[in-house]
Structure formats: structure tokens, C-alpha cells
């Protein structure tokens, strides 16, 4: 198996790159999706969130009210750290299981683990390659406002609750510049895939 850790700031284009690698044949795991699974009704993580933040963060149907919890944690670092301490260990355990499952199913698989908070949560799965998408703060805020309907204050709060591009670049093996045209992002993803294929072929030949 070849394990890629893919990270980048919010709206920097991680999913866009991951989808392209998936189209080439990679297995795609998404930490945001895993973070949703571990807080489904009946889970220990959801019980811990309610114990910490109160019943007010639940919808009438018992599901987590994500908008309400987001309003709290993206404006309050101490609250965010409490939430992270509940959710991140559960995500880490589930990711470990799913990576092992992908390897058991196909020991040749290329697995792309899309993990927004790789730096912040000190995620330490044994990555063969760490790939960072980087669009820049101004472009991230613009996308959140224009494409996802956040107001500028909410958008800036989300971007600023994360590590900086410089901190992410410091741990990157490969940086994909996602600030320009979509086609430029795609061609960098294609070049990355070609590099992985070539590296693996060279390794297989000894
Ligand atoms: C606060 C919550 C309820 C808001 O939910 P919402 O549906 O609005 O956002 P969603 O989960 O789709 O996340 C969107 C993006 O926000 C950013 N983000 C999410 N959580 C965090 C966090 N704790 N710190 C910084 N950025 C975050 C990421 O870039 C993520 O891709 C939710 O994000 C959450 O439970 N976060 C804690 C778990 C976590 O850290 N998830 C991120 C990957 S493990
Ligand atoms: N050059 C580019 N590369 C990637 N995405 C781009 C580019 N130009 C514009 N975009 C837009 O930016 C958005 C990036 O969204 P995407 O879901 O890929 O980011 P993400 O980093 O996975 O976000 P999140 O952290 O919220 O999961 C998309 O709407 C995409 O169309």
C-alpha cells in the first residue's frame, strides 16, 4: 500500500485533488466524513459532546446540530480544543481501522487520506507522502463567501482557527498550488499521480 496524507486549509481544494486521484484509481478516505460518523446518535463521542456543551447542541431528532456547535467552536479556542479532544481520538482510531482494511483488501492500493487538520491534530499515520493544497488566505475566504454562502466574519473565523499555510508547507513533501485556475490544480494532481506510478514501478523492479 502507498499512503498519502492530503491536507490543506478550508476551501483550499483538498477534495478536488482527492477526487482527481480517486479517478486515477486511488482509494479515498475523508476525515470530515469520519468525523461525522463518530458523532452519530448513540456514540460515546456524541454523549461526551452533550456532556460538555449541553443538550442545546442537539437537534430535536437527536442528531448533532452542526451549525450551532460550529458557531461556538469557531469563535472560541478553548471550546474548540475541548471538541477536538473528544472527536480527534475517535477519528484517529476509525481511520487506522479503515486504512488497515484498505490494505487487507488490496496490498497494492494507493490510499489518499484527506485530513484537514493533519498539522493541528498531529496526525501520525505512517504516510509515504504528505501533500498540501495551498490557495492562500484571501482566496480561501473568497471561496467560502462566494461559493458556500458564509458571511466574511464566519469565513475568516474558520480560516483563522486553522494552522497557517506556512505551518502546513513545513511538513509537506509536495505542495499543490490551488490559487489559480482549476485546470492548473488538475494538472498538478495528474503529475503527482504519474510520479507515484513511476516511483512504485521503479521500486517493484528493485
Ligand atoms: C464544528 C463542526 C460541528 C462544524 O460542522 P460543519 O458541518 O459546519 O463543518 P464540517 O465538519 O463539514 O467541516 C468543514 C471544515 O471546517 C474545518 N474544521 C472542522 N473542524 C475544525 C476544527 N475543530 N478546527 C479547525 N477547523 C475545523 C475543516 O477545514 C473542515 O474541512 C464540525 O466541523 C466538527 O465536529 N469539528 C470537529 C471535528 C474535526 O476536527 N473535524 C475536522 C477533521 S477531523
Ligand atoms: N484552482 C483551484 N483548485 C481547487 N479548487 C478550486 C480552484 N479554483 C476554484 N476552486 C473551487 O474551490 C473550492 C474548493 O473546494 P474543495 O471542496 O475542493 O476544498 P476543500 O479543501 O476540500 O474544502 P473543505 O476543507 O471545506 O473540505 C471548489 O468549489 C472549487 O471549485
From TrEMBL:
SUPFAM superfamilies: P-loop containing nucleoside triphosphate hydrolases
Lineage: superkingdom: Bacteria
Pathway(s) per entry: Cofactor biosynthesis; coenzyme A biosynthesis; CoA from (R)-pantothenate: step 5/5
UniProt keywords, alphabetically: ATP-binding, Coenzyme A biosynthesis, Cytoplasm, Kinase, Nucleotide-binding, Transferase
Keyword Cytoplasm: yes
Record has Nucleotidyltransferase as a keyword: no
Main location: cytoplasm
Catalytic activity entry: 3'-dephospho-CoA + ATP = ADP + CoA + H(+)
Location of the protein in the cell: Cytoplasm
InterPro entries linked: Depp_CoAkinase, P-loop_NTPase
Coiled coil: none
Residues annotated as signal peptide: none
Swiss-Prot/TrEMBL GO biological process terms: coenzyme A biosynthetic process
Record-listed E.C. numbers: 2.7.1.24
Function: Catalyzes the phosphorylation of the 3'-hydroxyl group of dephosphocoenzyme A to form coenzyme A.
Protein name as catalogued: Dephospho-CoA kinase
Organism: Agromyces protaetiae
Amino acid at each position: 500500500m502507498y499512503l498519502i496524507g492530503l491536507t490543506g486549509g478550508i476551501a483550499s481544494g483538498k477534495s478536488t485533488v482527492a477526487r482527481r486521484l480517486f479517478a486515477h484509481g486511488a482509494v479515498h478516505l475523508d476525515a470530515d466524513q469520519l468525523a461525522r460518523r463518530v458523532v452519530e446518535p448513540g456514540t460515546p463521542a456524541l454523549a461526551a459532546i452533550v456532556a460538555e456543551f449541553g443538550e442545546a447542541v442537539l437537534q430535536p431528532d437527536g442528531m448533532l446540530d452542526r451549525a450551532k456547535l460550529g458557531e461556538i467552536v469557531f469563535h472560541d479556542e478553548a471550546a474548540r480544543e475541548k471538541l477536538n479532544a473528544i472527536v480527534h481520538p475517535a477519528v484517529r482510531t476509525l481511520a487506522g481501522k479503515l486504512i488497515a482494511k484498505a490494505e487487507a483488501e488490496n496490498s497494492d492500493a494507493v490510499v489518499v487520506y484527506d485530513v484537514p487538520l493533519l498539522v493541528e491534530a498531529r496526525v501520525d499515520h505512517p504516510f509515504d507522502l504528505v501533500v498540501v493544497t495551498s490557495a492562500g488566505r484571501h482566496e480561501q475566504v473568497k471561496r467560502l463567501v462566494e461559493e458556500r454562502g458564509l458571511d466574511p466574519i464566519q469565513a475568516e473565523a474558520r480560516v483563522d482557527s486553522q494552522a497557517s499555510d506556512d505551518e502546513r508547507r513545513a511538513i509537506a513533501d509536495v505542495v499543490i498550488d490551488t490559487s489559480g485556475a482549476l485546470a492548473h490544480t488538475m494538472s498538478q494532481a495528474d503529475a503527482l499521480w504519474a510520479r507515484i506510478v513511476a516511483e512504485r514501478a521503479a521500486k517493484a523492479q528493485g
